Amino acid sequence: MSSSPSRSTAGWITIIAVGALVVGLLAGPALAAMVNPPTYTPTAGAGTDQPAEHTLSVTGEGKVTLTPDIATVQLGVITEKPSAKAARQAAATAMTNVVDAIRKLGIEDKDIATASISLSPVYNYPNNATPTIRGYQLQNTVTVTVRNLDQLGDLLDNSVVAGATTINGISFDVADRAAAESQAREAAVKDARAKADTLASGLGVRITGVASVSEQVSTPVWYGRNVAGEAIAGADAQTPVMPGTTDVTIDVNVSYLIN
User: CA-CA distance, 89 to 83, in Å (whole number)?
Assistant: First the structure.
């Protein structure tokens, strides 16, 4: 008689446990949704009455041809003497003569600048013997800006006569590059708009504004040939210098709004 209530109680416990398991299984997804609610990423244009923007992208080019009006040249003196002091003194005398020749052409001191000075030992390398110092070499280089290109030939020739032993890369440029870039930019914008108008007309759309614009500037530098310091052929000889021309080019990339 005493075992019957015990079995009844065990049966109720089993029913309650199974019921709790079922409730847990049913409530689990709901609780998970509350703890980790789902995310929603709207698609383009969702929730707004504004239509997507339509654009027409073109590239315009503007080019301005320039003739250089200034030049930059490096003139150097190289001396070698048995002692460092003697090399320095010889180079100082030679460079002083070169600078005096430059000044006589009317070039101002602000356009003459020391580019580099170096002093180094010079070695003899006998066979099967330790190298020995035979002297010292000093190199002194100045950079000269020539604002009157008619003087450039005289500058090269007179500097060599005065004692310059090297004449390095001559480069040409324009004093007012900004003005040329402004002209090229204006031409590039007009070119871009003309292309866009033609495309819009053919497509049957209308340009309503500008979405974005960017530019790329291409301004090459003139480079003349390297000129080595050599003796002048004759009293009336002059080194010919031909700067030529170059182009300042600007490309603009424009995206126009259309409808």
Answer: 10
Q: HEC states along 140-163? A: EEEEEEECCHHHHHHHHHHHHHHC
Helices 84-103 and 152-162 meet at what angle, rounded to 10?
Answer: 150
Q: Is 97 left (phi over 0), alpha (psi -120 to 50) or beta?
A: alpha
SS3 state at 152: helix
**Strand, helix or coil at 239?**
coil
Q: Please, what's the largest Cα pairwise distance for the chain?
A: 145
pTM of the model: 0.59
- Taking a C-beta distance cutoff of 8 angstroms, is the pair 167, 232 a contact? no
State the chain's mean pLDDT as an integer: 81
Tally Cβ neighbours within 10 Å of residue 57. 13
Q: Work out the end-to-end distance of the chain between its first and last CA atoms, rounded to an integer number of angstroms.
A: 93
Place of tokens 């497509």: 203
